[in-house]
Amino acid sequence: MQRRIFMGAAIGLAAPALARAQGAPQFTFRLHSFSSPTALDHTLHLDPWAEKVAKDSNGRIKIDVFPAMQLGGQPRDLVQQLEDGVVDMIWTVPGFTPGRFMGTEGLELPFMNTGLSATESPAAMEFINKHLVDSEYRGIKIIAVHSTDRALVHTSRKPIRRLEDFRGMKLRVAGRFIGEAVTALGGTPVGIPLGGVYEATARSQVDGFLINWAITQPFRLYEVAKFHSEPPGVGLFQGMILTLMNGRSYNRLPPDLKAVIDANSGPALAANRGAIWDTQTKPAVDAALAAGNEIIAIGAEEKARWREAVKPAYEAWIAEMTRRGRNGRAMFEDLQAITAKHGRA
């Protein structure tokens, strides 16, 4: 009897080693996303990333990916789900959780962008790592923050060619400070979930929306917006996309597996995912042209007028950072310096 107990204990002690040798998962994490399983967010980002982590860990880490809010809740609940430990990882955008990522939303201010996600994404990571890790991302392991491709103004019936054309326009926005910019330009910002943009525009509940090119194709937004106004080459701004991990989940890992997550995180991953987003710009532009839409190039002189007009949005962000006990003015100056270093015009 004693021998059987001893052998059973030995088998129990040997099981983890056997599992490691066979590549069986030792840690299973759940990644929750609001995006469609067929969108590039999953097919070219989250799913391949999860597979690479599994491969690099020799199967010891398994990441179950749940798209389209399959685990319940609304997109606005994702950050709370992460912090409560309901899920281990999330894919989200700052504007879904108002007030939570205000510093990060500074990266979405107009004319603070490079025009390419491949260059804007490492700029975002540099700014966040320098200024926001210990505040907005406390208790969170940042897998990557990457940007969308260039975003612009899409309108349904009335084209925007000059600053004055913004007056009276109701435009959907995804965050507070791009909303501040729309107000400064003369329009009225409206908050609508991404999935409702098509219908709201078709029913004239809004006159248009501010959004990046790539997302217009899978959501067929070129069907309801016939005019696309942008400063050539750079657009108006670029949105931020967050892939985050619960810090407690990360800290459960032994050092060698933390190293696997680390090797699949950070500025290089952000730049890589950004380059993927950039490949989707031209197909989206082509779809708009094929639909007979007009792409309006905003010239340098008019762009300068827009840039001057949106300064109140900059001041609003600076004031918010200062209210939170930071040196908002210095942060804004550094934001400009970092994005300029990475290619902002």
From TrEMBL:
Annotated signal peptide: 1-19
InterPro entries found in the cross-reference section: DctP_fam, TRAP_DctP_sf
Keyword Signal assigned: yes
Alphabetical keyword list: Signal
CDD domains per the UniProt record, alphabetical: PBP2_TRAP_Dctp3_4 (cd13665)
Gene3D superfamilies xrefs: Bacterial extracellular solute-binding protein, family 7
Claim: Hydrolase is one of the keywords in the record: no
Protein's name according to its UniProt entry: TRAP transporter substrate-binding protein
Organism in which the protein naturally occurs: Falsiroseomonas selenitidurans
